[in-house]
Design brief:
Strand order of the largest sheet: 1-2
Shape: extended
Largest sheet: 2 strands, antiparallel
Strand content: 5-15%
Order of helices and strands: HHHEE
Structural class: mainly alpha
Length: 62
Amino acid sequence: MTLVFQIVAMDLEKFFDKVNHDILMERLSRRIRDKRILKLIRGYLKSGIMINGINVGYLKYY
């Protein structure tokens, strides 16, 4: 028996820069009923960006 492992590298950061957060949240709310979880996800999407400990702002989706 031979085991095969595959590694998939993805840059999710770029995905969340481009996705419309309102549409994403609406679709997530269809499956997730817990408002606390949705609030955490929204907060994550709205959080700023830090590089080397310095807040460089927020990238708005397009």
